[in-house]
Write a structure and sequence with these properties.
The protein has 48 residues and is mostly helical. 69% of the residues lie in helices and 0% in strands. It has helices spanning 2-24, 30-39. The radius of gyration is 12 Å and the shape is flat.
């Protein structure tokens, strides 16, 4: 359980920092975000 919570924490930090970089580089796109979620479905289901 604790390992799963740590994994979810790091996935969330990774996603947030990725969005921050995209904003700074002016490359924020819902299409790119959608592709990331499709390629990494664990982002939506909490790492399960």
């Amino acid at each position: 359980m604790v390992l799963c919570m740590h994994l979810m924490f790091f996935v969330a930090i990774n996603y947030i920092t990725g969005v921050m970089v995209a904003v700074l580089e002016k490359k924020l796109s819902s299409e790119i975000g959608f592709r990331v979620i499709i390629k990494n479905p664990h982002l939506c289901v909490g790492g399960h």
